[in-house]
Amino acid sequence: MKSNVLMAVVFVAVFAVSRIPGLLPLNFSAAYAFVFCSGVYFRGKTGWWLPLATMLATDLALNLYYSSHGVEVWNRSNLENLAFNYVAYALLILIGRRFKPQSSFMGLLGGGILGAILFYLITNTASWFFNPFGNAEYAKTIAGWILALTKGIGGYPSTWEFFRNTLMSGGLFTALFAAAAKLTAAAESPAEKNAGAREPAENEEAEPKGEPKEAEA
What DSSP state is assigned to residue 26? Predict the structure, then answer.
């Protein structure tokens, strides 16, 4: 359907723009909502390859950008940490599959926020475990894990501030994507909506019209 193509273009365009470095505050991202809503609105294989391929393309572009600015991003620890992001993305798609495009706005909003919370927990745990930048604070203890989920690294904004941005952006972008999906569906013509309507088969007998004639004597 044309509406699905248009919706995919809108989703990818909004997400790609949101990943421009410095455009949004740290952890204020459309990623959580984009992946969750892809699971909701795109069925079949599209719901998987569209968000994951888009994430991979933008991650590669960002790594090339940061590498050109002297940041070491191609080391093993960072790539392993990045791989865990895709575990979180897959989980968000599965959560999106539990919803229908006709689900209530509040239901979708709650799903988007839940996905953002899970993404936060998974990715911050991965950052603590793999510690790609060698932060001394991230000791491999329960205390070090809790530190990674709450305070974070000294000299940077606390992890709780990132968590706040994660929740806000998850809710905001889920609402935007849900609104975009409804608008693109509303723009679909009646002919396109009925394109899958069943036509009677040629060999089906037509229903008799009027009263049957009496047999002649």
Answer: T
Task: Kindly state whether residue 200 falls inside one of the protein's structural domains.
Answer: no
Here the tokens at position 43 are: 């069925």
Domain contains 107: yes
> For residue 217, is pLDDT > 50?
no
Other beta carbons less than 10 A from residue 58's beta carbon: 17
Q: Give the chain's domain count.
A: 1
Which pLDDT score is estimated for 58? 94
* Whole-prediction pTM: 0.77
Collapse the DSSP code of 64 into the 3-class scheme (helix H, G, I; strand E, B; otherwise coil) and give the result.
Answer: helix
- Residue, of 133 and 94, whose pLDDT is higher: 94
**Which of 65, 75, 94, 204 lies closest to 132, judged by CA?**
75
Domain containing residue 58: 2-188
64-100 burial: b if 16+ Cβ within 10 Å, else e: eeeeeeeeebeeeebeebbebbeebbebbbebbeebe
